[in-house]
């Protein structure tokens, strides 16, 4: 399975290297007006008479340490139309909270992915009068960065922090120009438990009601991204020039499975691995290869006709990492145990895909490509570092590692990319058969 996953990720990376299609003439309006005049009333509505409202308390100065660190937005709502528009287009939001040496100034760093923009805020907040035990903060200095261009942040606001659950942070950010936001965050490492966050949505809504928010259309982060607009995705891909394979290669990918492919895949799968839910290890398949090959061929063909594999092909189990706290969600590692016949089909598709990827994947990509070696890229990097620059332009080397890259793939995007590379409708159907709704890896 790892080989097939790697090949699919390489195809997604190839999209990043695709050249713009100059035959397309689309007009992109990236302008977003952050300066609409808005006569906003900062007075909170009366809190509803409920248990949640009774326990809703602002965080005291003595507990300020609780909000320091890195946070991820999991639920938010605004009381203003412009705020609704922002939240609806938000893909991700991360906040860093740092206390300055004077113990009175809070550094608020917010990094957002909004539609096709990266928007960051760097705001110094000051506490109100020292005799006020509550944590009411006021922005005193700030910068806003849009796609790498830094400018002033001129909005005024009142910021209140509220007591909430462990590893949680709740903020009411009351701005002059864009209305009021209720923002619920989770500590880094606690923001990807989707089921737990969904269970908290009712609590978030009740808190919003207590604070006078209309919560009919909240922004809810599901651990991956905001809902994808298919029209935007199609428009983005239409503007790229995709390399494609030859019709002969497409025919090779789409051809019916062969008994020889099944037998070769059985021989190539590593022995000594744990079996899947059916209990049959690869050694059983290798011993009975002649008898099992025709049976597997019929099963694979029937599965393609039906559009689904048997439900017993895989099971997800959760393991506690050695030496980790069993009360922390991040201490558990979900893995999927796959039946060997599932792995056999994946191996066949991976071998077929490897035969055409050199036509699609740029020569710059050396990792996970047969016949290519990473020392070529290392040598190129050294040449760049040691050679004098032709222009007096600053240069930078960036190393990126995509955390759980395959788990974060947006599946509609993946299958659309496979079609754009002309990989063949039947071959794409095989891939969809293996990944109808992935749960773990």
Number of distinct beta strands: 14
Reading the helices and strands in chain order gives: HEHEHEEEEEEEEHHEHEHHHHEEHHHH
The share of residues in helices is 25-40%
Given as residue ranges, the uncertain stretches (5+ residues, pLDDT < 50) are 24-51, 221-226
The backbone outline, from C-alpha atoms, is globular
Count of discrete alpha- or pi-helical segments spanning 4 or more residues: 14
What is the domain total for the residues? Answer: 2
Task: Classify the secondary structure makeup into a structural class.
Answer: alpha+beta
Main pleated sheet: 8 strands, antiparallel, barrel
Q: In angstroms, what separates the terminal alpha carbons?
A: 9 Å
Strand order of the largest sheet: 2-3-4-5-6-8-9-10
Give Rg in angstroms. 27 Å
Strand percentage lies at 15-25%
Overall pLDDT confidence: 78
Protein name: Reverse transcriptase domain-containing protein
Biased composition (Basic and acidic residues): 32-49
Signal peptide: 1-18
Keywords: Signal
Give a quick set of tags describing it:
441 residues; alpha+beta; Lipocalin; 2 domains; 8-stranded antiparallel beta barrel; two-stranded antiparallel ribbon; 14 helices; 22% strand; globular; Reverse transcriptase domain-containing protein
